[in-house]
Amino acid sequence: MSDAVAEEPTHPALRSQVNRVPHLPGLDGLRAIAVVGVMLYHADHRWLTGGFLGVEVFFVISGYLITMLLLSEKERTGKVSLRQFWLRRARRLLPALYVMMASLAVYMAFFRQRPMGQTRGDLVAGLFYVSNWFQVWVGQSYTAVESFAPLRHLWSLAVEEQYYLFWPLVMAFLLRRKGDRLPRLAALLVAGSIAIAVVIGMLYVSGTVFHGANAITGATTCGAAESHGFVSLFGHCINVNEFLYLSTPTRLGGLMLGAAMEIGRAHV
């Protein structure tokens, strides 16, 4: 059985098997709990301040299921087709996203024209699945209270899509080599997930986060004396806590943990 990364077999029945993940009722329960937690958090976050952790549950589930798909394809066909994997993800995710964004654009053109200019950047970022980095750059805090920010939730989808791009490359590389590397990878993923959580805890800025303005020019400044919780990146003020919450590297912990769980399960 070849270990090379190659095209997926063209036989319809085999292709259907590769694309199918077995139904796991326990994951349905986890999804339900995560959804309810996020909904309650957004409805009244003072009552359930930790509800946003439901997003992390979704990251763990995604890491688990995507790794299951890759290992299942390798087991059934002896190879992993990266092109077919990415095409399946695109067919599953892109149509719903683009229909939603097109519908929103039409709605705003007729009924919410005033904030349409502010949403233009969100639309472009959502189109290319980089909403999390766009929000970090413009300082559009996910927790900020605004009357109309319909695409702010796309940051988590962007993190997952970026994960879908690079994780199959890692798995395809490792699956071409001896299988005894995978249990070691599971341990490294768990350690990496813990390390990310520790680093986030160390870098988190407590207290009120603010930036001031230059006394002479009035321009926004990230100087130590005029701000708290901001750093300067290419002359641009970046909120440290927003970076920790939205950026891809700092949100990989849950995805890595889910991948480690599936690798461990598959090699028990």
Structure summary:
The chain is mostly helical and 268 residues long. The protein is built from ten helices and five strands; from the N terminus they run ααααααααβββββαα. The radius of gyration is 21 Å and the shape is globular.
Topology:
Blueprint (H helix, E strand, L loop, with lengths): L11 H8 L5 H19 L10 H24 L4 H30 L4 H12 L3 H8 L15 H22 L5 H23 L6 E4 L6 E2 L5 E2 L1 E4 L2 E4 H7 L5 H15 L2
Antiparallel strand pairs: 1-2, 1-3, 4-5
Keywords:
three-stranded antiparallel beta sheet, two-stranded antiparallel ribbon, 63% helix
Terminal Cα span: 22 Å
- Give the SSE order as H and E letters: HHHHHHHHEEEEEHH
- Arithmetic mean of pLDDT: 81
How much helicity do the residues have?
55-70%
How many E-type strands? 5
Question: Which secondary-structure class do the elements indicate?
Answer: mainly alpha
**Strand fraction band?**
5-15%
Overall 3D shape:
globular
**Uncertain residue segments:** 1-19
Rg estimate, integer Å: 21 Å
- Side by side, the strands of the main sheet go 2-1-3
Largest sheet: 3 strands, antiparallel
Number of helices: 10
Describe this structure as you would to a colleague.
By secondary structure, the chain is mainly α. It has 10 helices and 5 strands, in the order ααααααααβββββαα. The chain has a 3-stranded antiparallel sheet, with no helix packed on it. A two-stranded antiparallel ribbon has the order 4-5. Helix 3 runs parallel beside helix 7 (154-175), helix 3 (54-77) packs parallel to helix 10 (252-266) and helix 4 packs antiparallel against helix 5. The chain is globular, with a radius of gyration of 21 Å.
